[in-house]
Design a protein that fits this description.
The structure is a homotetramer. With about 300 residues, chain A is an alpha/beta fold. The first copy, chain A, folds into 2 domains: about 160 residues, Rossmann fold; about 110 residues, N-(1-d-carboxylethyl)-l-norvaline Dehydrogenase, domain 2 (Orthogonal Bundle), CATH 1.10.1040.10. Chain A is built from 13 helices and 7 strands. Chain A has a 7-stranded mixed β-sheet, with helices on both faces. In chain A, helix 3 packs parallel to helix 4. The first copy, chain A, is globular, with a radius of gyration of 23 Å. Chains in contact: A-B, A-C, A-D, B-C, B-D, C-D. The interface between A and B is large, with 83 and 83 residues. Chains A, B, C, D: Keywords: Gluconate utilization, Oxidoreductase. Chains A, B, C, D: This is 6-phosphogluconate dehydrogenase. Chains A, B, C, D: GO terms for molecular function: NADP binding; phosphogluconate dehydrogenase (decarboxylating) activity.
Chain lengths: ~300, ~300, ~300, ~300
């Protein structure tokens, strides 16, 4: 079927390729003239599609998505559908859907997992929105998803797709943290000679066999002790939002949060806590507080 | 090759079956006369094997393993080999190995993952011990492991097999906790209509695809909200040992520990903490402390 | 000086008493006719005060405070001042202040600590708002605070008082959790004969000497093992808000969150996590999942 | 009464001073000739005391204490008493007590809190051992403790004093972490102008009033943002031992452990976890992994 794609970066570009290979007619637009876009403006994109139109937004969450959805609200007509495939916060979806609904434009939010591997392996998709809207866009989803019975779910009403993706990413944080804790423990122990090789061996037959473990073998193939990887990690929002959502729902998420905090700590987030602790220790115990002395105590 | 197996329970019994199907000659012994054992005493087991003998111990960790290894130290001869395939603590392995070494008996510790699925899927094996000893028993390991290049590792010196298995189980705790946190968050939210179906969809294409997620689909097939499963969980030692080992190595393991503590809490471990909190709140705030009042505040 | 007090419950009522003893003229109003109120409506309250008026709002945070502040916005005049002494979220303060500022009415947010002991011991006060407004109300604050140099701070601009109080309460959660963890550990150990007596002994000379420890002695005086206190605790919002605020600021707060989660867990918040863990264990390990069996494993 | 003191460092030296001011006759020994010692060998110390002797050991826990206790076992006679006032692990106490008991020598373990302030403020003491032995040494304890009814407890049998001190220090870790989390959250927020001043204000009237908060004012007097204090902290064992003891007792201690892990992380303990996370993110998402790029994402 025909669809417009806004945003032709790493994710959007790969998705267009997979969709075209699946027989869909995709008109692509991106702000960047070097992106290989088919049209050079949102107006031209909308004009090039036959009504009722489907437009997929694949731009950074927040201001860029807000702005794009607002412009589409001006340009599209009743009966058209906007799909937000970015990493928007689930609470934004209701705002976007309501604004578009005022003009009779449908809305779906779509969480997309799979990263750079999705082009080949297929993307895991989680959709939020009304049944009829979902059914209209389903042929697109069917092409993007992996082969087989998994990889696509109509998770719930508007917001449900991004809520599910948020939870998915929170789980991902927790799993990576768990693997990291295990690897780090083996790295410091005299009992395990080659921690990376040991982790690789778990890819078959073990309870922890997983795609992340498959990737771990790739990651350590040339650098089994990860010596060239910095001991610092960023966070991109989803785990934070999940912990916050769970806090409000009364659900404890200590493993997810531990993973998030480890990353925030690596960026200096705990520095003032440590300063407090060290300053207090110096007060009551006469403990050393200079860095070079600490290094030897 | 020929081997004696001590302990014919769920794990040992299935392993014997897989080994026999792989062409090995296994003599089985178990304390329980109903176990389908081939011989009715340790003495008879040893007598039925040709030197140099290999004896695999697959009994509960702790006293049962200690006692079995000690008896084997009396019955076996120099050149024989004992393999401890149970869930022994890695620190016990060095004690067992040293005692056996005094008599010239070799020792390997073998962590085994795969649970009840191992009989069919193969067992992930992690071995600790000397190279020569490992090479001698390797044909047995090759039969027990899954097909393909993964599932078997010579992890390190004596203790390394159980250390690796301990870490493996700690990771398993963290992963299950991560999935649980995600499922629980979706269960309480109005955004996701069917949390179990959403989790199932991640089995292909997503970053969290894993064998545990495959099992989750089985677990929720007839009970998608897990209403028939008690909200209480046991712990079996490995994660606890891992957290302790990591503490001594200076490695933080907050996700692993979170998983462990959740289980300890479900068994009442935090009750006195909560009593302290509620008693203090009543002191400074005049907060209610009776259970029925708490239920409505 | 003259001031109106709205809300004559446990906190408001005690504060009125302390203010009158300090020589202030307080006009009290409460929705409840049995409250000992001086006037029977907000209109009457406002009418009974000479301009420029100061009105202290001491009602539950959320809808009740919103409604009261809105009504005061209608009834008061330019130059009057509203003080919100409840447990409002700091983000609400900016909304309230802006709405009142449109009419020339000043606003201060005031976090109040001290609980039922404040009447006698004095209240610790944290104020947010503009300097001139703060200076106007300062005589009231000076009477409410404890004697001596501590107990009153102009923490920052509007919202700063409740932000500081939120952080204060988060710290309080962490401290109570710390005491609880220590008490619970001693309760299960054979090494300490009388944990409550041991905790009491720390009231002098030790690093952990604190008002909470003083209260602990009261709490355990007649029930040294806290056997009559339920192992369940509520949470009232501030620690949750603090963890959320810190997450957005990139500051890890694991101790504060641990305290909060323990309480949420005691109310069933982790039940679906535990169900997931136990269901998965049953899948891969054939572990028991019935409650009565768990109880003996 | 008469007593020998072994170890005249910061703690031991101050204690001798306080004991002498209290009228006791103390003979001091230290390995260091510059320590102001009264005798120059353990033999001379023992010879200078009238039987039945009391000897207080105030040297570093571990090898130094083991060695000193062993030597005293050789030099002392039945009826003498050894007090270990260092930070020994509670499990060592039973070993020391048993070895001394073989020769009829009594043993008490004594946890000491109060740091450099103890000389003036008095030391909080927690004692483990038999009743009769405790009663014999009690006049010493009464002089060391603060004035008033608190500061001294006979916590339990041998090991109980150090177990109680270990728990005390674990609580101390949790409290400092709680204060640190609050301070750090305020430091990053625009709502609180002067976090240190706000914390100081809580010294009276608030729920978190405590000796640590008193010390915090000292610590921030000349450096309110703690800019001269390194963001790194050491750990000295007790909190680690407490978390381990609690793990074995089935008691979760997330706040205590959070404090400990923060310190271990500041010393690089989580580096391999972060490397794992960042390496995996690079695999599935094409995320940047170079430090300078991370700094701007």
């Amino acid at each position: 079927m025909q669809m417009g794609m806004i945003g032709l970066g790493r994710m959007g570009g790969n998705m267009v390729k997979r969709l075209r290979e699946g027989g869909h007619e995709i008109v692509g637009f991106d702000m960047n003239p070097e992106s290989g876009r088919d049209v050079d403006s949102l107006e031209a994109l909308v004009a090039s599609l036959a009504a009722p139109r489907i437009v997929w937004v694949m731009v950074p969450a927040g201001a860029a998505t807000d702005s794009t959805v607002n412009q589409l609200g001006e340009l599209l007509e009743a009966g058209d559908i906007v799909v937000d495939g970015g990493n928007s916060k689930y609470t934004d979806d209701r705002i976007h859907a309501a604004a578009l609904a005022d003009k009779g434009i449908g809305f779906l939010d779509c969480g997309v997992s799979g990263g750079v591997w999705g082009a080949e392996r297929g993307y895991a998709l989680m959709i939020g929105g009304e049944d009829a809207t979902y059914e209209t866009v389903k042929p697109i989803f069917e092409t993007l998803k992996p082969e087989g019975e998994y990889g696509l779910v109509h998770a719930g009403p508007v917001g449900g797709g991004h809520f599910a993706k948020m939870v998915h990413n929170g789980i991902e944080y927790g799993m990576m943290q768990a693997f990291g804790e295990g690897f780090a423990t083996m790295m410091r122990s005299e009992y395990v000679t080659n921690p990376a090789q040991t982790m690789d061996s778990w890819r078959s037959g073990s309870v922890v066999a997983s795609w992340l473990l498959d990737l771990f073998e790739n990651a350590t193939a040339d650098d089994p002790e990860l010596k060239d990887v910095p001991a610092v990690a960023n966070e991109s929002g989803e785990a934070r939002w999940m912990v916050e959502a769970a806090l409000e729902l009364g659900v404890p998420t200590p493993a997810t949060a531990a993973a998030l905090w480890q990353r925030q700590t690596s960026r200096g987030g705990a520095d003032d806590i440590l300063r407090t602790v060290t300053a207090l220790r110096a007060q009551f115990g006469g403990h050393v507080t200079k860095v070079d002395e600490i290094a030897t105590h």
